[in-house]
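Case study: Diaminopimelate epimerase.
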Amino acid sequence: MERIFTKVHGSGNTFYLYETNDETEQDWVALTKWLCNKENEGGADGLLLVLPSIKAEAKMRVINADGSEASMCGNGLRCVARHVCEKLGVDEAIIETMKADLKVKKEKSIYGSIPTYAVEISPVSFQLESLPMEYHNQTEIQNQIIQEFSPTIHFTAVSVPNPHLIGIVDAGFITDNSHQLSLAELLNGENEFCSDGVNVSYAYPMKNDTIFVRTFERGVGFTNACGTAMTASALVAKLNNIVDSEMVTVFNPGGFVKCNVLEENGEYYLTLIGNATVICTYVIKMENNQYEFLSKEDTNEQLQYEQCIEIVKQETASFMS
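Here is what the predicted structure looks like once written out:
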């Protein structure tokens, strides 16, 4: 059989998007591993499945490049939001995800005419059991030096609902990612702290309303961007007075986003705003777990996004050279 897949990205976090009414139609793990193989059209970070929902406009599942399933993906959700809203002819919708039904909304473009969407990031928890993570019988880790990880970096653990360990670092840890790589590989292998692994992000303060974030994503590795990680990092930066604005600009290797961080009566309300770019569409032949690209049709959207990337290069040149 032949099926149409769309290649999309949010902040350089690249996915194949596929809509189906039959959740058991394919071996999604085998398909995703094939799609994400870099030898196949450059690969991707994962597969976004758009499915029917009985309680929302659509349901999203996220299969990582290694075949594992993520509970949420902020960058992917923006791409699904665009797909669903354009299909239904609406500007707002609710998308069902593994742990929450999330609001999505079309927004004013972040640059030029780049399609831009805002998505809710929820629920937020600092309880280590929500990641899960264990550390000396503590219930939380907030702005804390963990000697086993680093004698100088302050870490915060938070789930949104994907599990994140956020370290606030100076520029040296961004220009040289060897320390982050070593820690991330430790925490995503067999270890005593994170039984299911964890996304590890290093956040560097740039201005009073701007940070740079690099993420080692569980099931993927270093990625151009991770939406939930950028939002979690913006939250951590706001809580620790590293930024003093509710709207935080977050640069990353793949581009930039805006993260809105609101707190009311001890509850946190997080919104991720950024591009939802369609790179191209493919017709793929699928038979008995064998796959073949039959045709490809490009859009011109990536060209404008690359102009946006120049902003990132200019802003981060001092420590990303």
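For the exam, be able to explain this: DSSP finds six helices and 19 strands in the chain.
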